[in-house]
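Narrative of accomplishments. A recurring question from our advisory board has been how the design workflow behaves on a single, concrete structure rather than in aggregate. To address it, we present the structure tokens for one chain from the evaluation set, followed by the sequence designed for it. No filtering or post-editing was applied between the two.
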């Protein structure tokens, strides 16, 4: 019975649960390490994203005989020039749209209040189910306001510490570009024989999975934001550039992000001209269909091969467990775990086949 797969899986799950249980009981011992990990995690994450985005450039220039220090200088110069050019290109439009948004904030708030009052005053004319839904929303508005104010206070209080934390991003980024080829050998160099070959292969597969995800997600988010920006310009929606930039960053979050970025676009459209709400919905739906059926299959291919239902489940679970950071890292973490489990399974089958042939 001990050789059965289900028995081995059950034992593995039980041992994992015991490890988690005892870790939770003695977690106070690891609190200093957890604080250190939280401090370096965000800079490490952002540095890793920048590394995977710029690594193809480094590979391209080094294939043409440029030394490592030369490729680092080229990448830094390109990044500085790109950011500067981007700010010069859209800085003035963004500042104008931000100023307009600030100036129109009282008007927008007044329109939202008028719409809310109209819905509440006429809720008796709606079907019973709609009326109950409106009552439940109105009853929870106070809780939402309290939680929102707390989130704002938390955000403001953490802004200073986040600024100091972000200073570490360039150091992690430069370190990864400079010594990324030394990381894997230092790990699998601790082992010998077939185990060393397996760890080397697994680390290579993890690197490929992360590279495919980060590079693909950035490109997909850019193309999706570009499509939405063009659509917003066609329908002459106010704050089109701001909404498109928001869509770019929100699209980094699988499944949830695109719909979160849709909410402010719908609010602006409703206030500007109610008919634009329909056009914003059409543009968003069309962009999502093009992204899911045309862009993502060609950019990502089958490198990750994750079912959409799995993505939804992982993102929602990660959000409940670790909040916003959990949502960001949910899919790449799942991809890494999937690679490790897949390689373990393949290695197990290889050992099993070898043992069967020996017998």
């Amino acid at each position: 019975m001990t050789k059965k797969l289900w028995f081995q899986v059950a034992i593995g799950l039980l041992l994992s649960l015991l490890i988690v249980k005892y870790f939770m009981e003695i977690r106070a011992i690891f609190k200093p390490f957890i604080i250190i990990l939280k401090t370096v995690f965000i800079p490490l994450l952002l540095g890793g994203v920048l590394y995977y985005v710029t690594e193809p450039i480094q590979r391209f220039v080094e294939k043409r005989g440029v030394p490592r220090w030369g490729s680092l200088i080229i990448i830094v110069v390109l990044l500085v020039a790109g950011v500067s050019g981007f700010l010069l290109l859209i800085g003035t439009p963004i500042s104008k749209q931000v100023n307009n948004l600030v100036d129109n904030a009282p008007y927008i708030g007044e329109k939202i209040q008028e719409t809310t009052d109209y819905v509440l005053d006429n809720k008796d004319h709606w079907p019973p189910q709609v009326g109950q839904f409106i009552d439940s929303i109105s009853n929870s508005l106070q809780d939402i306001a309290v939680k929102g104010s707390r989130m704002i206070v938390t955000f403001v209080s953490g802004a200073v510490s986040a600024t100091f934390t972000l200073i570490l991003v360039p150091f992690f980024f430069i370190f990864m570009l400079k010594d990324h080829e030394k990381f894997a050998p230092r790990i699998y160099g601790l082992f010998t024989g077939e185990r060393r070959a397996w760890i080397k292969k697994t680390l290579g597969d993890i690197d490929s999975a992360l590279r495919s995800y980060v590079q693909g997600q950035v490109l997909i988010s850019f193309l999706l934001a570009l499509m939405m920006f063009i659509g917003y310009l066609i329908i002459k929606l106010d704050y089109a550039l701001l909404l498109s930039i928001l869509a770019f960053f929100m699209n980094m979050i699988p499944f949830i992000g695109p719909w979160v970025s849709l909410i402010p676009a719908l609010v602006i459209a409703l206030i500007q001209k109610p008919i634009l709400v329909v056009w914003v919905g059409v543009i968003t739906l069309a962009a999502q269909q093009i992204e899911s059926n045309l862009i993502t299959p060609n950019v990502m291919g089958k490198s990750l091969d994750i079912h959409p239902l799995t993505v939804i489940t992982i993102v929602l679970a990660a959000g409940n467990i670790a909040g916003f950071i959990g949502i960001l890292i949910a899919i790449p973490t799942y991809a890494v775990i999937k690679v490790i489990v897949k390689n373990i399974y393949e290695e197990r089958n290889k050992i099993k086949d070898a043992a069967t042939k020996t017998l």
